[in-house]
Amino acid sequence: MARLNLFFPIKPWIVGQGFGLSLACTEDTPEVPITKRKVIGKINGVCPVGYIELYPLLGMAGHTGVDVQAYSGQPVYASIDGKVQEVQTEPERGLGVGIVSHNRYEMDSWGEHYVKTRYWHFKGINVTLGQEVKAGDLIGWADNTGLSAGDHLHDELKPVEFNVDGSHYNVFQTNGFYGAINPEPFRNKFYAQDAEAIIGVLRAIVEVLTKLIALFK
Questions:
Q1: C-alpha angle 61/184/69, rounded to 5°?
Q2: Fewer CB under 10 Å: which end of the chain, C or N?
C-alpha cells in the first residue's frame, strides 16, 4: 500500500498558522453569536484586550489544519485524486470543499485509511458535489469567507472510513481536532498546479525503464 502523498494546493506555500496552534482571537462579546464576531490574530502571542481565543469556543484543542498565505481570487488546486463529498457554505468555514480519496493510504502511526482533504474560506467554487477530480484540478479561489482574519487558504486532512451505506466518517473524531491530523508530514514537495506535468514526466521515465529492462531479458 502506498504512503499518503499530497501536493501543495496553492503556490507558493507560506504557512501563517500551523496545525494545532491557537493564534486566532475573537471578540469577547458573549451576547453576539460567534459567527458574527470579528476575528484577528494574536499580537506577540497574546489576544488583545477585549478578545479571547477562538478555537476553545468552537470545541477545538487548536487549529484543525494549516493556514497558508493567499490573495483573494488566487486559484486553489486539488492535492490528491478523489471525489467531491462536500461543497458547503457554513458560518465558520465560509465556502468550502471536501474531497475524499478513492484509495486507502499508509499514514505512519495513524494506520491505513482513506483520506478527506478540505479547503476553506473560498471566494468561489469550481467543482460540484459528486464530481471526480484529479490532483491539479482547479477546485476554487481563495478568500476570507467565514471566520477569518484575512485572505488565506485553510488546508485540512482527515483520515476517514466508509459505512455500509457508502457514507464516510472521521476515524479520529474525538481527538480534539474533529478528526483532523497534521497534513505536513505527507507533502510530496510539489505543487498541485504542476501535477499533470510531473506525472507525465514520471510516466515517461517508467516507459523508458520498462523498455531498457526488456532489452536485457
A1: 85
A2: C
Q: Are strands 112-125 and 94-100 parallel, antiparallel or unpaired?
A: antiparallel
Domain boundaries, the chain: 71-215
List, for residues 78-103, the tens digit of each pLDDT value.
999 999 999 987 788 899 999 999 99
CATH number of 71-215: 2.70.70.10
Q: Which residues contact 184 (CB under 8 A, 6 or more apart)?
A: 18, 19, 66
Taking the alpha carbons of 47, 48, 49, 54 in that order, is the dihedral positive or negative? negative
Grid coordinates of 116: 478527506
Sign of CA dihedral 41, 42, 48, 54: positive
The whole-number pLDDT of residue 156 equals 98
Q: Which residues pair with 156 in a beta bridge?
A: 118
